[in-house]
Amino acid sequence: MISVRVSEEEYSAFRRLCLVAGARSVSDLTRDAMRMLLNGANREDVLGIHVNEFRTQMRSLDRKIEQLAAEIATGLKHKARRTENSLAEVPSDTIN
After folding, report:
1. pTM above 0.70, yes or no
2. What is the C-alpha to C-alpha distance for residues 92 and 42, in angstroms, rounded to an integer?
3. Contact assessment for residue 45 and residue 35, using Cβ atoms and an 8 Å cutoff
């Protein structure tokens, strides 16, 4: 067992990193980091993997946002046409 003292700020940073990295706990995060160091993985490799995952997720979200925007625009166009058609059906002497 290895015990390390860290400040509250450092511990909070570790907890935030757990969320980003998908680790269940600070202990899991630490174990994984130590394994990577022991196996020769350097920091750039590890961060590169997470950055690539982040980019992939961002691209996916961007596509979904574009799809939703297109669906909303289509729905608004249909609604505007229905409103125009409804107004066209109203006799002109009832408007005003």
Report:
1. no
2. 76
3. no
